[in-house]
Amino acid sequence: MKQRISLLLLYLVLTGSVFSQGKFFTRTGQISFSSKGILETIKAQNKTVTCVLDAQTGQIQFSVMMRGFEFKKALMQEHFNENYVESDKYPTAEFKGQINSPLPDLSKDGSYPVKVKGKMTIHGITQELATDGTLTVQQGAMKADATFTILLSDYKIRIPSIVKNNLSNTVSIAVACSLQPLQ
């Protein structure tokens, strides 16, 4: 996994997505999701999210390894990786987007609501995504938070009929990344 994260960083640097000034970065961001079915709520969390934010242009990118999601029940985690998101075939999910509202003055401490628009790829399917988020600046560090919902069917993730009552097609996702200035 470290090799893939290193490759992602190298890719970002080589493609010009990362510059030395005004960039914020983390490899320990968090993404959690929940799906409330009739019989059961499925929850998982991943604490190894890579995120890069260009505070000058508003470009933002997230990448997460699907096998990094942790569930309360090991069997849920196994089914998630093998039956639903097919983690061996589609090992990562990513979002590439842009802050789609006027960029706040991120040189000052404060909490700033933003609108973000971009493309999210999960399970090999890319969909447009727009959501509201918050950037919080405190003493040179930045935190990016957002919550939104997706439909599993939009990403061709099929729910087997045998567990249809356990899972919902709608999944709530929360993103929380504490970003540090990129040196």
Automatic annotation (TrEMBL):
Coiled coil: none annotated. Gene3D superfamilies: Lipid/polyisoprenoid-binding, YceI-like. InterPro entries: Lipid/polyisoprenoid-bd_YceI, TTHA0802/YceI-like_sf. Pfam families: YceI (PF04264). Residues 40-176 form the Lipid/polyisoprenoid-binding YceI-like domain. PANTHER family: PROTEIN YCEI (PTHR34406:SF1). This is YceI-like domain-containing protein.
